[in-house]
Amino acid sequence: MIVVVGETARAANWGLNQSLYSQARDTTPELKNLQVINFPRVEACGTNTEVSVPCMFSQLGHHRYNESAIRSQESVLHVLARVGVRVHWRDNQSGCKGVCTGLPQDTTDAKMTPDLCAAGRCLDGALISDLDVRLAHAQGAQLWVLHQIGNHGPAYHRRYPPEFTHFQPACQSDDLHRCTLNEIANAYDNALRYTDHILAETVRKLQAKSDSVDSALIYVSDHGESLGEKGLFLHGMPRAIAPSEQLEVPMIAWLSAGLDAARGGISGCIQREFALAAQKNLSHDHLTHTLLGLFDVQTQARDANFDLTQACPTTQPSRQASGS
Ligand SMILES: [Zn+2]
């Protein structure tokens, strides 16, 4: 299982969302040719990384939001690790905000991927540079979280390699005041096209190994971004008054054909349930409970209302997690 935590990607600019957001440009040219499920209606827990990342990996989520409780409780990653899932967090950003404390983790590093890193920052390609090797050695139930730099602003132009400069002219400044709205949007959408490429590469690598590794990928962004609407830029508005651009985020999933069987379920069930869920309003709250469902963990923390695998029972003994 690979979870990609996106950064600052907003639903309104996600190419796969064109049916809902007609203004979205073609920012997902690679994913649209793959068998991914796109969830066009997903609401973030918060408008910044500090709130959203702990929240999306918490059993409380937004519907029972309590910042101190979320910070003091185990994350779903800890629960999964306790029932035997090998969890690994790889960071290309500002850390896991307590979500992966004490669990195996690493950060992208210029020593490992010199071609993808400059001035203390790595492009997101560094997150998957060794994916083939990791898949070749994968055994048992594993969850790999990849935390992107994604569309982190204001220097959107630093988030993609030059060959991804598709929309032009793109803002080349770290100071948004020096660029027009059009130039800012161009740089932002170019960065989305690089995320499209990273996700598509990940899916293609999982697909290539699907005869030996049953796998799934979920991508969801942590929050959105304002690109000049109502005179606002960047993100972090208090949630109660935040514009939709900062709260509506892209989310996709890809499932290998063998996933249901590996879980002891009926073939095609999760694919069907995810496709049905794509018609509904979802939120970050669905991530934790769906992960518990995908790994078939029986715990009182698992809430059927937010578990997209709920309608897909398993026949093999479930993983049991005691406590919270
Ligand atoms: Zn963020």
Question: Can you walk me through this structure?
Answer:
With 324 residues, the protein is an alpha/beta fold. It has one domain: Alkaline Phosphatase, subunit A (3-Layer(aba) Sandwich). It is 25% helix and 15% strand. It contains 9 helices and 15 strands. The chain has a 7-stranded mixed β-sheet with strand order 2-12-9-1-8-4-5, with helices on both faces. Strands 3-13 form a two-stranded parallel ribbon. A hairpin with a 2-residue loop joins β6 and β7. The relative contact order is 0.21. The mean pLDDT is 96. Bound molecules: zinc ion (ZN). The site of zinc ion has 6 residues, from loops.
Helix/strand layout:
Elements: E1 2-6, E2 37-39, E3 42-43, H1 49-56, H2 67-72, H3 76-82, E4 86-91, E5 105-107, E6 117-118, E7 121-122, H4 131-136, E8 142-147, H5 181-208, E9 216-221, E10 226-227, E11 233-234, H6 244-247, E12 251-255, H7 259-262, H8 269-277, E13 282-283, H9 285-294, E14 297-298, E15 319-320
Parallel strand pairs: 1-8, 1-9, 3-13, 4-5, 4-8, 14-15
Antiparallel strand pairs: 2-12, 6-7, 9-12, 10-11
Give a summary of the structure in a few sentences.
The chain is α/β, with parallel strands linked by helices. 25% of the residues lie in helices and 15% in strands. The chain has a single domain (2-256), classed as Alkaline Phosphatase, subunit A (3-Layer(aba) Sandwich), CATH 3.40.720.10.
Main traits of this protein?
single chain, 324 residues, alpha/beta, Alkaline Phosphatase, subunit A, seven-stranded mixed sheet, two-stranded parallel sheet, 9 helices, globular, binds zinc ion
